[in-house]
Amino acid sequence: MNQPNDGPDRAHRRPGGVSDETVEALGALSKALETTERARGHLYSFHQLTGGADLELDRAVGLLREAGHTEYADRVEREILGRNVIPGHWTFQIVEAYDGTYYQPFKELERSALRDLADGRDHLYEAEMKENRRTTGHRDHTARPDSPNTPGTPDSLDSAS
């Protein structure tokens, strides 16, 4: 028997007239954006790691000088310290170009598609997959955080005593 809070909340229910194909297409679009989010995170890792390495060069230059290797200290300062990672670009410029050229337009298009094709409702594909895979009535398969007997909620704590 279904409880009042059994099933996805309104934000995760398919609006009337939205086809299976549309839900699947929006799910694929969102998955591609999520992958882009991960790529962007790796780009920020690249940015921070490269910047950290450049700052560590200061220490290397000092240690080379202390060890009497001034020629190599001078070469590191002249040839590597502060060098562009690709012609004309430090890593922050690569991040900015990626964000403006690819990431922001992609994010805006995905939001627009959700708004226009599914009343702005996100993760419909996943919400429907959850409904198809969960065991109704099982305490660890509740539909929503506010479902009765969801582990860790006040309702479930009352029933455990």
Description:
The protein has helices at 20-66, 70-80, 91-118, 124-133, 154-160. By secondary structure, the chain is mainly alpha-helical.
Which structural traits does this protein have?
161 residues, mainly alpha
Write a compact overview of the structure shown.
The chain has helices spanning 20-66, 70-80, 91-118, 124-133, 154-160. With 161 residues, the chain is mainly α. Helix 1 runs antiparallel to helix 2 and helix 1 (20-66) runs antiparallel to helix 3.
Ordered list of secondary-structure elements with their pairings:
Elements: H1 20-66, H2 70-80, H3 91-118, H4 124-133, H5 154-160
Helix pairs in contact: 1-2, 1-3
Number of strands: 0
Assembly type of the shown chains? Answer: single chain
What general form does the structure show? elongated
Average pLDDT taken over every residue: 90
Let me know the largest β-sheet: none
Report helical residue fraction.
Answer: 55-70%
- Low-confidence regions: none
Rg, Cα atoms, Å: 26 Å
Supply the helix-strand structural class.
mainly alpha
